[in-house]
Amino acid sequence: MGRIRMRYERLADIVRLATLMQGADGLTLDDMGAEFGVGRRTAERMRDAVERAFGPLELVDAGDRRRHWRLRSNRLRDLLHLSADELVELETAAADLARTGQDERAALLRDLAVKLRALLSPERRRRLEPDLEALTVAEGLAMRPGPRPLLEPDLLAAVREAIKSGRVLAFRYLSRMTGLRSWQRVAPHGLLYGGRAYLVGRSGWTEEMRYWALAGMSEVRVTGEAFEFDEGFDLGDFARRSFGVFQEAPVDVTLRFDARAAEDAAAFLFHPGQETTRNDNGTLTVRFRAGGTREMCWHLFTWGDGVTVEAPESLRRELAEMCAAAARHHRIV
Prior knowledge:
It is a single chain. This protein is of the alpha+beta class. It contains eleven helices and eleven strands. A five-stranded antiparallel β-sheet has the order 6-5-4-3-7. A hairpin with a 5-residue loop joins β5 and β6. α4 packs antiparallel against α5 and α10 packs across α11. It is globular, with a radius of gyration of 25 Å.
């Protein structure tokens, strides 16, 4: 039984590798090794197995002086089957995007789901429909209540067009901090998604990269003004500097979640560089270094008395002042 299972897993890996090798740039042996956690010799054997099973491979010039192998064959088509779980996952992702106001991205995923269903044979579609309906109802995709930011129609399409064409984006912006509206011209360098969606770019009044919340943008248009992308800019590195979107000097943060909140907190990623410690008394300690204490307070406020800020004192004080201000505002007299 164990040998049959091993052979099945190897066959599944070969089919998956063949699928990955159909990408535009193909795969290097290092790519194969990293994907499947194997050494170079095993990666070579897997590559050769793909060629024997699905036809000749071609070498691709990807511009990095490494040998990329690509599979250009239609023989995989009959081996790849969409499952109800995979299709409903697209629906889940689309519903989550719509819930946060990102209707354009949700529509793209739903269009993809429709196209994938169209590729199925009629018999396969009939077999999948009952499972799809059951999962859709069970996961509550039809209606998920809750607040959501409203984005202007076609806003995301305009942002993406500006990024792809390397042209400056002009828009009117409402600042959450000041409540003031202003006209902005931004050289867009990327988009960040989370609870809110943000444009990252450089404006004419500063050379520093900054954030703009898509929910605060209106009257957006792609201008005819071209700009040069900053080749040294890394969106991931930029995002990791802060807890949220405020770029400021980082601080060393230590949070302690009590035993009631520890399990929930353990399932959260507060920061990519965090370190967590489960304490003997059932509490959880989370440590990370980041800027953006205002957004830290906004998030920590939702944990109520389940979290204690142990460091820095300035963050603890800021959170206490925010809680006190909220209590005064909502006081019943």
